[in-house]
Amino acid sequence: MSSFLGRMKEYPTVSLDRFDRENLHARAYFLSHCHKDHMKGLKGPLLKRKLQFSRTVRLYCSFVTKELLLNNPKYSFWEEYIVPLELESPTQISLVDEASGEKEDIVVTLLPAGHCPGSVMFLFEGCRGNVLYTGDFRFAVGDTSRIEHLHSGSRVKDIQSVYLDSTFYDPRFYQIPTREVCLNGILELVGNWIGQSSHHVVWLNCKAAYGYEYLFTNLGEEFNTQIHVNSLAMFKKMPEILSYVTTDRRTQIHACRHPKDEEFFLGNRLPCGCTSADGTPLRIISIKPSTMWFGERTKKTNVIIKTGASSYRACFSFHSSYSEIRDFLSYLQPVNVYPSVIPIGRTMTEVTQMLKLMCRKRSDQEAFTYKPLGVLKRSRAERPTYDSGSEDELFEGLDLAPVRKKMGLNQDGLKENLPERTSAPVSVDEPSALTVAEVQSVSCNYVDCTESNGEEEDDEDEAKETESKDMVTDSEAPKWEDFFTTEMLTDSQNSQSQSSRMSGSQTPELFSDKEEETPDIADDFSLTLSASLSNHSSQNMDSSLPDTLILRPEQQLGDATTKTNEPSESQVSSDFDVPSTPESKVPHPDELSQLYRKLASGEEVELRKGSAVSR
């Protein structure tokens, strides 16, 4: 009983032998043969609806499987969606996503599986490697080496994964007799029985609707007779089988079926109810082909075992034995093997562990590992080359970290001299003065790859340019200490400065390149003294600094007197927060008003040393 869920890891857009659940989203379907455990969901309403609205989804199988499938009226709706493929003929199939238009091409080859009429294996070849899906198969030891399409010339193809029919991958089924050996045992038993009289009849108790055609054809040819079956419809387009089966009950070998066939047999009747023409009771024996029953035997047995007065078990297998599977895998040596069936009494973990022993060894696996072009981006360790005798001069007494430099595309001569290594450099004749920082920097030296898109490198260049500009700006900007001497402020002056900052003042940089405007008054300006005043103040640097007053007129000169009486926000928080000159006094409002009038009329302003007026 197949436990395969329908999806392969390498090609997840196709579904095999499973047509329900997540498989409803597949872009293509594959059917290995027409046994019910491989046809789940094949006649489901959801799948039928999908086919009606799809233009690209198809079912791929062999010609025999197509005829067997369409013979059942329940699957007749598949007729326009089935694409039969020739055996051992590679066919390219396009897997199209109808929503996005994405397309993937794969090559599929159908290989005979030896399980039942129409049964095939699927070999997928594409960008994700070669994958083999066996379905149900029966290969004898040595059969794999005779399959042409598993070889490329004289060598076995590199198989990435095998999805394996592991029905009998259990040491209990180590050796299953070949079909020829089993057939010979059945032929001997049948011949001895029907040869006694025309009333001696054999009933083949076959549990499957079809799959025993190998027995039918060989029995019919050996005894020159036909085997009775319920219907010929499934064999109409298989002439090689049709001539060996019949619906005429007057034959000595029957393979007819009935829902209660066991009850018929216990009553010494055939499932079809056939009796002799002269009323003579029929002498009937049943032969039940089986494999599982023989695998449960603890002792070595014959091919034919008598289990009752008139019942026999015949060893006949549709699946490969444990030793045959090992021969199959050891010849292909795939990287991965995934079981499709869990043997009775085993778990998935146990079977998986046993199959891992048949996979390609790790050393061999690495040799076949696919490596994309992205490997070219790998870091390459290189030692910087210098002229002879220059190393000691460069690194003597210095702790330098060499700068990573990009190699230009036109420096072909320099590339030839660089050692090409992909591993860490071996320290041979290295200067003793090299520091740890230098070694780490050298080991991370990258060589630019021509395959790279260069986006990350462009970002690095921009960041470096921005950083260099910032460094230049910071180095060229003048400092306050270059022009003025630093003096410690008193506690009162510190508190005054802090209160002005908290009031929301904005102090512009004195030596910035751009002029900043105050947000409160657009037409603010500062009244300065003449150049002679500046010269006078510079001549008296040794003595006390001249008193200075920074004047800031309001929008209307007439409101100056009113605003001096009521301290406004502009007076409390000046845009130019300069502390008061030592030994100075706060000017009186009357003095300020008088000073404003003189300035407005253009009169000269007299400065008095030690006065409250300062600039």
Automatic annotation (TrEMBL):
Taxonomic lineage of the native organism: Eukaryota, Metazoa, Chordata, Craniata, Vertebrata
Protein's name according to its UniProt entry: Protein artemis
Transmembrane regions listed in the UniProt entry: none
Source organism of the structure: Acanthochromis polyacanthus (spiny chromis)
Start-end of Acidic residues biased regions: 453-464, 514-523
GO cellular component, one term: nucleus
Keywords linked to the UniProt accession: DNA damage, DNA recombination, DNA repair, Endonuclease, Exonuclease, Hydrolase, Nuclease, Nucleus
Family named by the database record: Belongs to the DNA repair metallo-beta-lactamase (DRMBL) family.
UniProt region (Disordered), positions on chain: 412-432, 450-592
GO MF assignments: 5'-3' DNA exonuclease activity; damaged DNA binding; endonuclease activity
Ranges annotated as biased composition (Polar residues): 527-546, 558-574
UniProt subcellular location: Nucleus
Residue stretches of biased makeup (Basic and acidic residues): 465-482
